[in-house]
Amino acid sequence: MTTTESVPAPASPRAAAGQPLLTVDGLGVEFRLRDTTVRAVGDLSLTVRAGELLAIVGESGCGKSVLAHALLGLLPANATTTGHAVLHEPDSEPVDLITCGQRHLARRVRGRRVGLVPQSPATALNPVRTGRRLLSETLRAHGRDRADTEQLAVDVGLDPADLDRYPHELSGGMAQRLVTALALAPDPSLLIADEPTTGLDRPLVDHTLDLLRRRCDNGSAVVLITHDLAAAQRVAETVAVMYASRIVEHRDTDQLFAAPAHPYASALLDALPDRAFRAVPGDPPMLTALPPGCAFAPRCPRRTDTCADRPEPTPVAGGGTVACHHPIPTGATP
Ligand SMILES: Nc1ncnc2c1ncn2[C@@H]1O[C@H](COP(=O)(O)OP(=O)(O)OP(=O)(O)O)[C@@H](O)[C@H]1O
Ligand code: NI
């Protein structure tokens, strides 16, 4: 399999590594249904820095994809989004992705400065265009050379011959690689990749992860949404663990994997085959009926009466935050 050996220069100026690229502050998303409200994202704050690969992990339904869609203005009409998410880039004014409006998002941000690898590739592809046409048109629309089409296919591990297929002729894994190539075509400074390795076999999983990792080497940033903790451990600098709409722990990857502070993060790691291989006991709560306090408390071996109050994210020794009244001591010295 061919890989890109060098890191190409980005299409637009990038912030210096370590500078905040996206600051999310108090983000909330609710869906109004006929007789209830789904609180899919609650009071979520985080910073993504230039050159960083942040992995967001957590059980199915905890709000990962809704977070991604909120940042790109892709939520349906029954959604209400609150809070802020400011994109800072060296060549332009900071823009609040939550308040700037659909017009600005569509013209200036989505698929340009912020790219999305969607979780469902099959529905994201225009069915009447071949992969080659989709990719070359996207490159041209962003002022890039159409001759890069085949290279981009190779970069994502797609055989250029398969570019002549229509979406319905692609396997799930091929469609996945094509949507990744389409998201990369505009060379966004921030790429949000929502389960980008679904349907890929192990060598292609690693190929895709390494491709995302390399993007960060020129000052771009990647938010990788994944169920695959091993993937997060392999390529992410930092990991945010989401539980029932909130981030419960956000720390340096090595530190989190060595000594998780939140009981839920610890239980997730215990579910790994090379650890205890024990599923997290119990079920997550319904997002229509979240308890006022800690949402993990009913499943938590460390819970006390204090957990009836919601824990706020607080600093952990060694860096990062944990939202728990009774965090597991990490052994790190302040
Ligand atoms: N349009 C919608 N209307 C109502 N509820 C929605 C809507 N979209 C998502 N939800 C709900 O929001 C919650 C979070 O969904 P989301 O897709 O973000 O989960 P996820 O963490 O990405 O899960 P998975 O790992 O399975 O992809 C779920 O309870 C889901 O049912
Ligand atoms: Ni999802």
How would you summarize what this structure contains?
The chain is α/β, with parallel strands linked by helices and 334 residues long. Helices cover 26% and strands 23% of the residues. The chain has helices at residues 64-71, 102-109, 121-124, 131-141, 149-155, 172-184, 202-215, 229-235, 253-258, 263-270; strands at residues 20-32, 37-49, 53-57, 79-89, 92-96, 114-117, 190-194, 221-225, 238-243, 246-252, 314-315, 321-322.
Question: What can you see in these coordinates?
Answer:
It is globular, with a radius of gyration of 20 Å. Strand 11 and strand 12 form a beta hairpin. Strands 6-7-8-3-9-10-12-11 form an eight-stranded mixed β-sheet, with helices on both faces. A four-stranded antiparallel β-sheet has the order 2-1-4-5, with helices on one face. It has a single domain, classed as P-loop containing nucleotide triphosphate hydrolases (Rossmann fold). The protein is α/β, with parallel strands linked by helices and 334 residues long. It is 26% helix and 23% strand. The chain binds adenosine-5'-triphosphate and nickel (II) ion.
